[in-house]
């Protein structure tokens, strides 16, 4: 049992705020950690330093344009790092846990290991013990690891918190019969908790994905229902890697949820092309799924093979139509670039495919993680990587497919200009005295 005087501060450092945007979604892994720690007697609180409360989000295109700001931040050149240090040091906790990404969901653009390491160094200089957690630290390079007293997953116990947390959180969350649910009340920052887990890990082994390294572990239906009962919204994203169309499992979840006084939930769920069937779509819709987020990734055969995906272009077209015919909204994930043959040709074939898909939204990513030659500022919206892959001039065609509203986060605004997207070379030219911005092709 920890002493009740042990004061642990769980912190999601700024990430999207480093680029002038924000992420008001609560850090789910930290909320689960808060529950574990409080259950063992620690005094514990959580702050999301990526929160701003703004009513709109900048566009994905704006993030590509601004990605050089993240490159500056990983060298320490961001006032938000100093601001974060002041906030944390001012709380005078016994131990700080900094996240870099989230170990439970397969979503990767939630934090950065180098940014967390820079902040950890400042905090350690101020005499604080600093632990790290999150998917972006699990494969961290040595100088990132050395910035922390410990990385929670996998290291020997050395502090009160890590003694409790040395078992990987996803095992604790998924343990048979466990009633562990995230502690939303620990969050002091006003975060929105609209992501819920019914399982961790994945049954697939896609070459670019963190979840591929984690075995599927299901959370007990009674625990899922307990978690849903504490949510203040009935429209939720499932954080599962893929919501498997397992009729018995979904029936058990439905039965557990039925005990919540008739509350009806609507879910957005991640899905994969090769599991799209009329029957599976009916099963998902009966469970309350109203939106599928489909890992299409590419319209290029060689790229799909390199990614270890199990579908082809024609299957994707059929699956998308079936999803829409079933009355579900459809978000398509695209992954451009990466260690694939003919990167530019692959991107062109993918754009051609996307133009034929009846999707309500497109998420346009560049292959940034789990690749050779990684850079500290890699992200799915890296303008530098788009240049490196030779596809920067193709991105406007993809951005033109994106809507200006998402159900999960609301209105999206092109803040950086009325249309042109500038690649890195053009930004650099514009930064030179006497050089105006050179517009790329119009966006819409
Ligand atoms: S299907 Fe592939 S990309 Fe999707 S979560 Fe599983 S391993 Fe990751």
Write the layout of secondary structure elements.
Layout: E1 7-12, H1 28-39, E2 43-48, E3 57-58, H2 60-73, H3 79-91, E4 95-99, H4 113-125, E5 129-133, H5 135-138, H6 142-145, E6 150-151, H7 160-165, H8 169-174, E7 195-196, E8 199-200, E9 217-218, H9 221-229, E10 235-238, H10 247-258, E11 266-271, H11 278-287, E12 289-297, H12 301-307, H13 313-325, E13 329-336, H14 343-355, E14 361-366, H15 383-389, H16 395-399, E15 405-406, E16 410-413, H17 424-431
Parallel strand pairs: 1-2, 1-4, 3-16, 4-5, 5-6, 7-10, 10-11, 11-12, 12-13, 13-14
Antiparallel strand pairs: 8-9, 15-16
Helix pairs in contact: 3-4, 9-10, 10-11
The chain binds iron/sulfur cluster.
Residues 106, 202, 204, 206, 209, 211-212, 241-242, 272, 295 line the site of iron/sulfur cluster (SF4).
What can be said about this structure in brief?
It is built from 17 helices and 16 strands.
Textual characterization of the structure:
The chain has 444 residues and is of the alpha/beta class. It has two domains: 192 residues, Cobalamin-binding domain (Rossmann fold), CATH 3.40.50; 220 residues, Aldolase class I (TIM Barrel, Alpha-Beta Barrel), CATH 3.20.20. The protein is built from 17 helices and 16 strands. Strands 7-10-11-12-13-14 form a six-stranded parallel beta sheet. It is globular and about 60 Å long. The termini are far apart. Iron/sulfur cluster binds next to loops.
